Amino acid sequence: MSLSTARFHHPPLARLLTGGFCVLALLVLSACGSAPKSGGSVSSGHTEAGMASYYGNEFHGRKTANGERFDQGKLTAAHRTMPFGTRVKVTNTQNGRSVVVRINDRGPFAKGRIIDLSSSAFKSIASINAGVVPVRVQVIE
After folding, report:
1. How far apart are CA 123 and CA 49, in angstroms?
2. Number of Cβ within a 10 Å radius of residue 114
3. DSSP 63
4. Which of 43, 53, 112, 141 has the greatest number of CB atoms lying within 10 Å of its CB?
5. 120 falls within a domain
6. Segments forming the whole domain that contains residue 54
7. What is the model's pTM?
8. What pLDDT digit, counting tens, does each position of 115-141 carry?
9. For residue 44, what is the DSSP state?
10. How many domains does the chain have?
11. DSSP one-letter code for 136
């Protein structure tokens, strides 16, 4: 029998270990994914600084990450990690205007942005034409 026609036999234990290793590797890799965290608790007074943007009209009526329908007229926002229902005060650092919003979605996923506001919330602190503004986000409850 030549090497090209020989069939190599793997004992059952070796196959089991190989399969177990593959499953373990997949579990480890899946834990390294980039899915946003749902967040635990965030203490009142916690602050972050960064850029805020707003949802486009194409999102009106779609489901948010917490399951409710997005409404441009409500004072809501998306944050990557804060728990749903968290109320935050968002202050435009250029003009001092602020608005209180409730976190009900995940995002934004654009680099440098920390919060996405409904258009009505964004209009409370800046002109829609601005598009993106520097803000301070403070947890109030």
Report:
1. 19
2. 19
3. B
4. 53
5. yes
6. 47-139
7. 0.70
8. 999 999 999 999 999 999 999 999 998
9. T
10. 1
11. E
Q: In 10 A of CB 93, how many CB atoms?
A: 14
Q: What pLDDT is recorded for position 6?
A: 47
Residue 20 inside a domain? The answer is no
Q: Residue 45 — left, alpha, or beta (φ > 0 → left; ψ -120 to 50 → alpha)?
A: left
Structure confidence by residue, pLDDT tens digits, 29-49? 333 333 344 456 778 889 999
Q: Are strands 113-117 and 98-105 parallel, antiparallel or unpaired?
A: unpaired
The two structure tokens encoding residue 29: 């890799």
Render pLDDT for 73-111 as a digit per residue (tens, 0 to 9): 999 999 999 999 999 999 999 999 999 999 999 999 999
Residue 26 within any structural domain of the chain: no
Domain CATH number, residue 80: 2.40.40.10
Question: Does some domain include residue 18?
Answer: no
Burial status of residue 8 (CB atoms within 10 A of its CB: 0-12, 13-18, 19 or more)? exposed
